[in-house]
Amino acid sequence: xxxxxxxxQAGAVLAATALPSMGAAWPEFAADVNLEIAxxxxxxxxxxxxxxxxxxGRVPGPLIRWPEGKPIVIDVFNRSAIPEIVHSHGLWIPSDxxxxxxxxxxxxxxxxxxxxxxxxxPSGFRWYHTHISAGTDLKRATYxxxxxxxxxEAKQEPGAYDQEIFLTLHDWNGYKSxxxxxxxxxxxxxSTIDGRMLGFSDPLKVxxxxxxxxxxxxxSASLIHWLALAGHPLTILAMDGNPVPVSAQMPAVRLxxxxxxxxxxxxxxxxxWILGETREPYRKAGMGIVVEYANxxxxxxxxxxxDTVWDYRKFANTQTPAGQxxxxxxxxxxxxxxxxxxFDTWTINGKSFPDAxxxxxxxxxRYRMQWINRSSDDHPxxxxxxxxxxxxxxxxPLSGLNKDVLxxxxxxxxxxxxxxxxxxxxxxxxxxxxxxxxxxxxxxxxV
Length: 447
Ligand SMILES: [Cu+2]
Description:
Largest sheet: 7 strands, mixed
Number of helices: 2
Distance between the termini: 44 Å
Strand content: 35-45%
Bound molecules: copper (II) ion
Structural class: mainly beta
């Protein structure tokens, strides 16, 4: 992203649009950020067009960069054909501003406008995206280009880097895979970084010796992705925008849907390289971007990283957390088979949303959720409006790792602790769009 793409407190920078003609009530004062939801023919490579829906005619939507604690007003205009909503992911904001209908936030009808106003916190790498259901339409919801980065600046930014680059991963043109697999996970035709296929975007320009901070978002509707930068080790600084206790170095990083990762790479290997998916079929489908050192030319090269195991405990303290929760809430996740060719439905303790009973919490108490994945799928589990601390993975303790999405692999368990400190209905769900739409969701309710 270049500087013109940023929206800062100095003033909104937007593509010119014909907003007043849309007939919706015109807001009385200008917002800090305007987001226009509209259909877009996205050129992911020359003459390769994906028909989608996006914010402000671009993918990703504009980077919203905002000081922590300073009120923000975001006007959303829906010029798409269906009701929409914009969720601010990872923020501690009121339910009615959080952009999820299940929490009581309104849908924005086609042609209508809605004004979100809240105080962004906590600092770090957050994001915004649509939160409608897709049903069986793999051209809706998080399958579209409706996502963007939301960076909330801390009062004191360490700034120990020379260049900062935001990158967003996405998969396009989902279709139901004909594998006969009962889970019916979609397969995709194309994959992109920042809306362009590998080789068809401007290279990222670096200089030898630079420390480059990549802030990476996986905005895929359903796929976990692995990324590496051709022989450059990646030092993990933050996950889901929160600094990690242990900045381990990895040859490759893994991101589940909705996860973010901040990694630092030192440019000590001059050349023209590919930063891309470690698995060749995804790079061939487009998931990659060229990193070009100054005064270097030639075809971009790829180097396979060594096999990498992803273990969140590598980035955490490996002791049990100091505090004990007030209550433990066991949650068991299973799929229900509905016959060949049909989608499975998903259950939490045997029930699918909206029949799944809410999780009751009391303000000020600390809760431990036990996530028991009794299925053969991986689930990126997301809690709205709160940050949780990961405290156990497959029985092994950890502490200090604060996240809002955690991938719980097939047939495994995890435990996370959170303090009920943001009253209001709060959604807990799997971030895989298919799973979420088929019942993998429930509400946390304050009593
Ligand atoms: Cu899931």
